[in-house]
Amino acid sequence: MSSAAAPVLLKLSGEALKGSEGIFDPQVLGRVAHELLEGVRAGRRVALVVGGGNIVRGRDIAAVVATRTRGDYMGMLSTLINALALREAIEAAGGACEVVAPYAVPNVAAAYDRGQVLRWLDAGVIVIFGGGTGHPFFTTDTTAALRAAEIDATELLKGSNVDGIYTADPGRDPNARRIAHMSFDEAVAGAYGVMDQAAFGLCRDRGVRIRVFDMTRQGAIRAALGDDPPGTTVG
Ligand code: UDP
């Protein structure tokens, strides 16, 4: 394994793990786990940030929980549930995995410790960052940018359900074409809705390239971790 290569950080939305019935699709969990492990076996050091949109997003449950901060804590707890599901799938596929959160949650997640995270990554352990930033009003995209910068990742892979950034909505506009590469300023100015501005800003300031790719396709994560990755690069 080349521990010299910079780690890569993959952001998966909670939505990506969702089945047609229920919050998880076991096949998706299995596919994600196997493809991540192929990346690790090929020498990549792989960290993950997972969202919680398949369970709770703070902003979506205002009718139930009027206190936004409480709704956001529920959202952050959702990301930990997803982290445990992914850990289970990775271990079932024969890999090693640790879940890390801003604060220790006994039996669920270790408290973030940069040195420990880097040692795990060096040893081929997949590290999943659950629990978001630990603060309400942020997103897991911002968490992904923050953790990518903290672990000196040069690339943030943003798994999406479209294969990159388009000039227009490809579902509505037949003339929409995929953009292979754009600058941070173009991405922010174009308001493509791929990531929030805080996430873009942090990546721009820390020199973390963003690659948006379609993670719903078989083999997409393996390809994204490989030498000729698909999608749109921002950076
Ligand atoms: N969240 C938060 N702070 C964070 C990260 C997430 O409060 O640092 C909450 C917020 O309510 C968010 C939910 O957790 O809606 C799930 O995260 P996100 O919406 O980013 O998940 P995704 O859409 O990627 O599945």
Overview of this structure, please?
The chain is an alpha/beta fold and 235 residues long. The protein has helices spanning 26-41, 68-92, 114-122, 140-150, 184-190, 197-206, 220-224, and strands at 8-12, 46-50, 97-101, 110-111, 126-129, 155-160, 165-166, 178-179, 181-182, 209-214, 232-234. A nine-stranded mixed sheet has the order 4-3-5-2-1-6-10-11-9, sandwiched between helices. A two-stranded antiparallel sheet has the order 7-8. The longest helix is centred in the middle third of the chain and has 25 residues, at 68-92. The structure holds uridine-5'-diphosphate. Uridine-5'-diphosphate (UDP) is lined by residues 13-15, 51-53, 57-59, 71-72, 75-76, 78-79, 132-133, 135-136, 138-141, 143.
In short:
This protein has 235 residues and is an alpha/beta fold. It contains seven helices and eleven strands.
Quote the beta fraction.
15-25%
Whole-angstrom Rg: 17 Å
Average pLDDT across residues?
93
Q: Choose one word for the global shape.
A: globular
The major β-sheet equals: 9 strands, mixed
By DSSP, the count of extended strands is 11
Q: What is the terminal separation in angstroms?
A: 27 Å
Which molecules are bound besides the chains? Answer: uridine-5'-diphosphate
Count the DSSP helices.
Answer: 7
SSE arrangement, N to C: EHEHEEHEHEEEEHHEHE
State the assembly state of the protein chains. Answer: single chain
Structural class: alpha/beta
Q: Helical amount among residues, as a percent range? A: 25-40%
